[in-house]
Amino acid sequence: MEVLEATLRTRGEVTFTSREVGRLADTGTYILNTALYYALGLASGRYVDTSYEPTYVEDTADVTSVYVSPAAPVSGTTPNYVTTTYNATSDEYAEVNYSAQDDPNAKQNLPSYGRRRSLAHGTPLRFFVISRNHAPNKLAERLPRYIRLGKKRGKARLDIQRRSASKQTGKFQLNHPIGAYDYPDPPEGNVITKSMKPTPLVIQGDYTGEYIRIDRGDNDQVCFPTGLTFLETKR
Fold this sequence. Notes:
The chain has helices spanning 33-39, 56-59, 136-142; strands at residues 2-11, 19-21, 24-26, 66-68, 72-73, 81-87, 113-119, 124-131, 146-149, 154-174, 178-179, 189-194, 201-215, 221-225. It is mainly beta. This is Type I-D CRISPR-associated protein Cas5/Csc1.
């Protein structure tokens, strides 16, 4: 069998608010698959959201046979960052435009200031696309070569390769992140997790059972449990 390996390279700043420390909004080193499904065009949400409730499960109901892993830094590389200071400039998605007589902040001076730390231009991250029903070459043709990500809709380029993979059974170690809700069985040991919103990640863990081993050459192998489904335990 074959799977797709995608290398994402940022083209400019890409900003997520992975954590907030005082007035610093910090972008982490992982990109959740909750963002990648939309960026790749595999899912689409509502243009206007008035409920403020996530709809990831509903939006991906038709693509459960395609698993997109979270993106992680390419091994041997260090993510590049750029820090921007803003002052008296709103950093919100949208502004409420009040009439002059109804503006609750009319007599207040409320500047918006702080710093944001973003992934800088040229930062490489890697993720995998595993399909149960689609031919890898057809799926590769469907995926875009440029995508938009993050709060500021930063641009990134995708370089996609087809990788040979095989199904195995036995003990194995997960060595690429998956969503904590994407697989029903917890790791047996050597667990490394990362708390993120809206879904935490399992970075590493020992498992026993059926798994997919992806051969990247030079004895470099990536292992995933079989049957991964985006937000499986939430469906």
